[in-house]
Amino acid sequence: MTAEKIAELTGHGNPIFTLELSQKPGILFTGGNDKGLVEWNLHDHTFIKVMFPVRASIYAIHCPAGYPLLFTGLRSGEVLVFDFIQQKVIKSLQHHLKAIFDIKSVPHKKELLVASEDGTVSVWSLDTLEIVHSIKVSVDTVRCIAISPNEKQVAFACRDNSIKIYDLEDYALFKSLHGHTMSVFTLAYSPDGAYLASGGRDAQIKIWDSATYQPIKNIPAHLFAINHILFHPTKPYFATASMDKGIKIWGADDFKLYKIISREKGHPGHVLSVNKLAWNGDQLLSVSDDKKVVVWDIKFD
User: Fold this and answer.
1) Which candidate among 5, 40, 79, 149 keeps its CA 20 to 30 Å from the CA of 265?
2) Phi, psi of 232 (to 5 degrees)
3) Please, what sign has the CA dihedral across residues 233, 2, 288, 198?
4) Is the separation of the CB atoms in 231 and 255 below 8 Å?
5) Cβ-based burial of 130 (10 A; exposed 0-12, middle 13-18, buried ≥19)
6) Tens digits of per-residue pLDDT, 66-109?
7) What are the distances in angstroms from CA 15 to CA 18, 59, 174, 292?
8) pLDDT in tens, 155-178
9) φ/ψ of residue 74, rounded to 5
10) 165 with 154: CB under 8 angstroms?
């Protein structure tokens, strides 16, 4: 496996915390500790524009499939709703008073889930943009949301070191998982739904059987906190991003380490924490505290 840096997108003046591919091919959105949400062209790797200004740092961006909407979660607790057809912010979802860390949607229910530092997850109707439910998940921050591929269950990563599994039908607590020794930062179900991968401040990746939620494997994956785990959409691999400035690519079926993308390994990588990843086909996009968006071309053997 080889990784080649093919582009570096610069323009952010502060750390970048999150990114999201548009439903429109070749368009990327990024947000961070800047004053706006930024749109990029991935065909020629150029800055397009600042979509709209924000009053607080952006921690989460989500474009739900089938809706012309972009949701932006802010450190202030606000969620801004941008309409691509009207080309403007049409609403602010006001419910949380503390930072928004993740936003995901449940297609079959036409619902949006918003995770906050206040320990709750709010549930919104994608059709009416009204709140329908609020779940008290933890006494502390809910950092990440992962929805199982069959949309039967949802997993929440919590700052109290636990992972909470809820039934998506009635939002009843199904199971609490304990294994991490520090805050859980990131969760991802494997595309086939066979297992849940978790990563956190303890630098460990834990693999949980999604039928029983028993632990299958523990991988001492990075030197510092794991900020993001992301499965390749079609190939049996997943990538991890860490506060140790590195990106690693693992086998999704054998859990072997196949590639380390870091300056220590001779790659022109990030010089500060890597915060979030996105797969654009076989290209891996990464954003970092170093204010850069990097596009990596991954060749799988």
Assistant:
1) 40
2) -65, 140
3) positive
4) no
5) exposed
6) 999 999 999 999 999 999 999 999 999 999 999 999 999 999 99
7) 10, 11, 36, 8
8) 999 999 999 999 999 999 999 999
9) -110, 160
10) yes
